[in-house]
UniProtKB/TrEMBL annotation:
Keyword Lyase attributed: yes
Protein name: Cystathionine gamma-synthase
Modified positions (N6-(pyridoxal phosphate)lysine) in chain numbering: 211
GO biological process terms, semicolon-separated: cysteine biosynthetic process via cystathionine; transsulfuration
């Protein structure tokens, strides 16, 4: 099951679900196993010094279970090369160190995932890579935050976590490229099923595969996908040099999840639409934030660049922080917990949980905000649970 970059890449023009299920792996030559075996091996016998079988030498550099996942990730993002990491933040760290050097500058979203902000503010900054937050929905503001010659990356999430702000990927790619920078898109919230940033001009896609790609809340992981082979070499070198790779067990679980991404995402979207219809206009709710609502400021851009609007909803409640905390605690079908993108519905209070690390900064989120990751349970049960939890 040796893979080459050609096996990984865009030569595979089958439909999304076919790629998700078949790309990256041919049934095992010896046994015909239809799924990639979990190669629990740190090293590989060499046929004479340097006589590697299929290029495998040591599992930090390459492991066949990970290779299969990496090929599938490249295929579903319509990229050339995919790289699988131990977590989303490990993937992000590898991008920062592979593509910036001390003295460089990055524009980041002013409502990024709290952990991404922390990585830039508490880790990359010490390494010498500076950052400026800018609103991803405002192309001119992002352009104004770029420092020509110094800015190496324009980094966006779209939709953002947790405010579900939409950035226009095509326009932001132009802003980045005009300044000689690269556009990095964190595609975690959309998933590759709903949005493929490389096809819209982005240079680098990053994921927390912990979320929709894995899809079952049973594994932490990250991914990077690129088209440009020089970028691939730089990411690949740093993946090996820094070593934050996905292990074979994690790679297997993530790959298994990816195969059902399309059907899961459609159900996530169906259920989210039902929940939005219930929340929107309810007097206990002061604002519903969902890119599928015509009233969302990014609705038109989202409709252009996303297949559907996703499974994430944020909303604000009348009654402030105490009510928001109480709703989170009263919900039963929605499990109170961090993370998102799994089959089970989750509810959380970003201000005190996922985004506690941005408290007191420009990125602070409203304290009456609740975030839902709408799962694929029976929609009626989800609506009834929220109705009860709202009190
Ligand atoms: O948790 P990890 O796999 O390291 O991924 C980090 C990450 C990166 N990008 C986005 C958009 C994310 O949402 C995350 C992780 N987010 C959560 C854990 C959360 O509950 O929002």
């Amino acid at each position: 099951m040796t893979q080459t970059s050609a096996d990984q890449g865009r030569a595979n023009k089958a439909g999304f679900e076919t790629r998700a299920i078949h790309a990256g792996y041919e049934p095992d030559a010896m046994t015909g196993a239809v799924n990639p075996p979990i190669y629990a091996s740190s090293t590989y016998k060499q046929d004479g010094v340097g006589g590697l079988r299929g290029g495998y030498e040591y599992s930090r550099s390459g492991n066949p279970t990970r290779t299969a996942l990496e090929g599938a990730l490249a295929a579903v993002e319509d990229g050339e090369r995919g790289f699988a990491f131990a977590s989303g933040l490990a993937a992000e760290d590898t991008i920062i160190r592979a593509l910036t050097a001390p003295g460089d500058h990055v524009v980041i979203p002013d409502d990024a995932y709290g952990g991404t902000y922390r990585l830039f503010d508490k880790v990359a900054k010490l390494w010498g890579t500076a950052h400026s937050p800018a609103p991803v929905a405002d192309v001119d503001a992002v352009a104004a935050a770029v420092e020509p010659g110094r800015t190496k990356l324009v980094w966006v999430e779209t939709p953002t976590n947790p405010m579900l702000t939409i950035g226009d990927i095509e326009a932001l790619a132009t802003v980045a490229h005009d300044a000689g920078a690269l556009l990095v898109v964190d595609n975690t919230f959309a998933s590759p099923y709903l949005q493929q940033p490389l096809t819209l001009g982005a240079d680098v896609v990053v994921h927390s595969t912990t979320k929709y790609v894995g899809g079952h809340s049973d594994v932490v992981g990250g991914a990077v996908v690129v088209r440009d082979l020089d970028l691939a070499d730089r990411i690949g070198f740093h993946q090996n040099a820094m070593g934050a790779v996905a292990g074979p067990f994690d790679a297997f679980l993530t790959h298994r999840g990816l195969k059902t991404l399309g059907v899961r995402m459609d159900r996530h979207c169906d259920n989210a639409e039902r929940v939005v219809a219930f929340l929107d206009g309810d007097p206990r709710v002061t604002e519903v934030i969902y890119p599928g609502l015509a009233s969302h400021p990014g609705h038109e851009v989202a409709a252009r660049q996303m297949k559907r609007f996703g499974g994430m909803i944020s909303f604000r409640v009348a009654g402030g922080v105490e009510t928001a905390l109480a709703v989170c605690e009263r919900a039963e079908v929605f499990t109170l917990g961090e993370s998102l993108g799994g089959v089970e519905s989750l509810i959380e209070h970003p201000g005190r949980m996922t985004h506690a690390s941005v408290a007191g900064t420009d990125l602070e989120v409203p304290d009456d905000l609740i975030r839902l990751s709408v799962g694929i349970e029976t929609a009626d049960d989800l609506v009834a649970d929220l109705d009860r939890a709202l009190g």
